[in-house]
Amino acid sequence: MRARPVSLLIALLVPLSAHASGEEAHPLQFDEVLRSVSTHDPRIRQAVERLRRAEGKTTEARGAFDPRLGGDAKLTTGAYYDLRSANVELRQPTTIWGSELYAGYRIGLGLNQSFPFYADNQTLSAGEVRAGIEIPIWRGGLIDPERAERTRAIRLEEAAGHALSVTELDLELAAAGAYWKWVSAGQNRQVANALLRLAAERDEQLRRRLKAGSIPEFDVLDNERILLERKAFVVSAERAFEQAGFELSLFLRDSGGEAVVPDAERVPQRLEIRPLEQLAVEQAVSQVLACHPELERSRAELEAAGVDLTLTRNQVAPDVRAFFQYSRDLGELTGTVLDFTLPGNVFQAGIELSVPLLLRRDRGRRDVARAEVAEKQARLDFIADQLRARTRDAASAVHAAQARAELTEDVVEAAAELAEGERRRFEVGASNLIFVNLREQQAAMARMQYIDALAFAEIERTRWQTTTRVSCGPDTEAP
Length: 479
What we know:
Outer membrane efflux proteins (OEP)
């Protein structure tokens, strides 16, 4: 690299680090912005609350398999038959083929000991114990609404977790854009002020020379025009910096979560081109397509929709249920005419059948579920295409941004030399204000372009990092 002229460094570049003793003590770094985003950003909290809501839905769906305890007690009298009865039963739904286990106890004793109430209600003196199982054979066997809701809730909880990761990556990239826009606007503001100072200092020199009679008044008037133009340029630069600060405040917050507009003193003063490591683009593409959180979220949502399709297909089948029950009466005979039928073990097995007819509602739900699965599959395919293109584009962009920054650095050096040379020619009367102003503006614009190129290179570097930052498990295989 060529050495920059000393006078130009003083005129243009030193203002970028003039506050080194104060500003650089507490420059705002991107890591601080990221910590603020992860700790206080409302969009992160929204994603976290959506995840908590999904976790609550999963807990609610699992509640369908909680054991249920029920019972009743009756006293029937005032008619030919009378009865005192009590019944309690514990049921446990399971996830094994929709089966349900139950166990219970009942007792039924008639007030009129000679004539029982009904055989199904009559027990020995200590009551009856029973246990059994109910198993759906067709509809509800492979899947039922309770198991479908449980599986769907688990998949949607996974999707919410991946959505949180997507939000974090998106916010990191957005924060990088806001942060580097603010840094470049802050440094461009300093360049504009430095350019204004050059015109102000020259105005004083020209007025002294005018009083001495060595230059015409025309030169002073021309420099006043230049001074006014640069003041307007400073106003625009100040406005751009304020706007960038407001945008950055959406990501930068204090310990209480309140948005903070950073001061100009916190603008980092030294920027440099960081070396770019070799990018393994195709390997990154494979990893991104295997387990990028955006794809994982879409896959989880597709699996949740697939559960609905499986359920609706099963719901059009006949409802065939098998059951098996064991019961035994306990205690002594009560003296009724049915006592002799009660003692001993009782085994009962059977099948219940219910065949739906038109099934228009179930067929309609099946068609809706089928369309939703196809829609989500198409969306998943498109997201994969997007991520493939985005990863390759991010690699291309970061290389191009790096090259642009390196080239503009050379432009800064050349423009600085030309501006310095033109000022020296003007001092000895070999040039005029038009060329001096043009060269100074070119040097300032080159410096601003360099600052913008550095900021853009950092944004593109962050875009590559957020696009390719995936956590693939050891068993994950690339497609």
